[in-house]
Structure formats: structure tokens, C-alpha cells
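Incident log, support desk, overnight shift.

02:14 A customer reports that sequence design results differ from what the structure should imply. Their input is reproduced verbatim below. On-call engineer (initials T.W.) acknowledged and began investigating.
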């Protein structure tokens, strides 16, 4: 690869319902329209990687890979995958597997973290919530990614997690009106819990919101789950992807 030419990034958004991908230029602009496939069911690691390879074959050449995954990721390994099946995915080296299959270096991060990297303003404390199959979340302080918060797995009401209270299955089962009442109440809780300056709402079900949002709450473009992928290769995030955690400071 010519050092004068910015690397092209294969950006992948792995969701509970769909897997989407495109190739980005050095500034995070899509070089072609995104392509997509339904997420395999069951969504075993091999089946998901097969689907990603099928999407990659439809796209232009790329130099590196960035993937957003719906679960907690630690240094390229899956720790939880609540909407895909955690048992099969637990401790799966997804970044390593993608690199081996597609023959390019790969970085993987939680999908809400990637969406946030694509949509945040970079000012103050910003929270990102993705409303889809489950509820994803991420936090940023002045543009810097903070330790991951799996809000979707936290109880919100009568032992129900945010996923179980607000996920896509609830929207389909209870209908838009009741789902919106639940979401409005949940956003009040999140504001009290996090005291964010700005909240960004993404994911496919953000389009279902039918109430007026506070001035510091924005609807985020879903394309951020793709375009944010280029940011995974920022040197500022190198420490997150190191093979081992940094040493603790004495004291």
C-alpha cells in the first residue's frame, strides 16, 4: 500500500437483525453504498463470518477492517453477545478471525461505541443509545471514548433489562404507543443516571419516536454505525486494542 494514499477501511455493522458493510475512504466517507444481509439464525460465529465474507466480496478492495459488534468486546474478543447467543460467542477472538478470513488487519468494538464515534460532537459528556434488536449504549467525554457501559443488560423495571423493556420484540408486541411511553420514561432515568450534556439516539427504531425530545437529545444518523468504523484506527484508540491491558499506576 502506498503510504501517500489513505488506507481504505472495510466497515462492518453487525446487528441482531442485519449485517451491513461498506468501504470508507480516509475521512470516513463511504466509497460505495452499503450492502447488507440478514443476520444468520442461529448466529453462530462461523455463520456470521461467512456472511461478512459474502458482503466483502461485493465491495471494492480495502486495506483494513473495522467492525461493530452487539455486545461487550475486550481487545478484539467477544465477552457477551446477548442478542446473538453469548454461550457460543464468549471469549471468541472475533478480530483475529476476521483478519484470518479476509487477510487484512482487523479491529472490533461494541456497535454503540462505533456509532458514537461516527455521530458525536466531541464536546462535553455525550451518551449514545441505539434502539434496535436490543439497546446499545456508549459514553464519550470531549470526544474521548469512556469505558464501555452495557446499559441494555441493566434492570430498569421489575427485573426487566433495558433490552427486555425496550427492544424490538417489545415494539412489535406492544405497539408504538406503549413503546414510546416506555422510552420516554427510560430517557428520564438515563438523564438522571448519567447527567449527560447531549444524548444521541440511533438504531433502526429511533425512527419510531413519536414524542418531542428535549433540546439536548438528538436523533443520530444510522449510517454512523458504518462511518464511525474509520475512527477505530485512530492512534488515540491504540491502547484499547493492545494485546494486554496497560499496567496500573502505582498508588
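02:41 Re-run completed on a clean worker. Output:
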Amino acid at each position: 500500500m502506498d503510504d501517500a494514499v489513505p488506507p481504505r477501511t472495510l466497515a462492518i455493522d453487525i446487528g441482531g437483525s442485519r449485517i451491513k458493510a461498506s468501504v470508507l475512504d480516509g475521512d470516513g466517507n463511504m466509497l460505495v453504498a452499503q450492502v447488507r444481509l440478514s443476520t444468520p439464525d442461529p448466529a453462530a460465529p462461523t455463520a456470521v463470518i461467512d456472511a461478512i465474507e459474502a458482503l466483502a466480496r461485493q465491495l471494492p478492495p480495502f486495506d483494513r477492517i473495522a467492525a461493530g459488534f452487539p455486545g461487550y468486546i475486550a481487545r478484539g474478543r467477544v465477552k457477551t453477545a446477548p442478542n446473538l447467543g453469548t454461550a457460543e460467542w464468549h471469549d471468541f477472538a472475533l478480530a483475529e478471525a476476521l483478519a484470518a478470513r479476509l487477510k487484512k488487519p482487523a479491529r472490533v468494538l461494541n456497535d454503540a461505541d462505533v456509532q458514537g464515534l461516527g455521530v458525536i460532537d466531541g464536546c462535553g459528556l455525550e451518551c449514545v443509545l441505539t434502539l434496535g434488536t436490543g439497546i446499545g449504549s456508549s459514553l464519550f467525554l470531549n470526544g474521548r471514548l469512556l469505558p464501555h457501559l452495557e446499559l441494555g443488560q441493566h434492570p430498569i423495571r421489575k427485573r426487566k433489562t433495558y433490552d427486555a423493556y425496550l427492544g424490538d420484540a417489545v415494539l412489535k408486541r406492544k405497539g408504538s404507543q406503549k413503546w414510546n411511553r416506555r422510552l420516554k420514561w427510560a430517557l428520564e432515568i438515563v438523564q438522571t443516571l448519567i447527567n449527560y450534556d447531549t444524548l444521541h439516539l440511533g438504531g433502526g427504531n429511533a425512527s419510531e419516536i413519536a414524542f418531542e425530545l428535549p433540546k439536548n437529545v438528538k436523533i443520530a444518523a444510522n449510517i454512523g454505525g458504518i462511518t464511525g468504523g474509520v475512527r477505530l484506527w485512530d492512534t488515540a484508540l491504540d491502547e484499547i486494542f493492545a494485546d494486554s491491558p496497560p499496567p496500573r499506576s502505582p498508588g
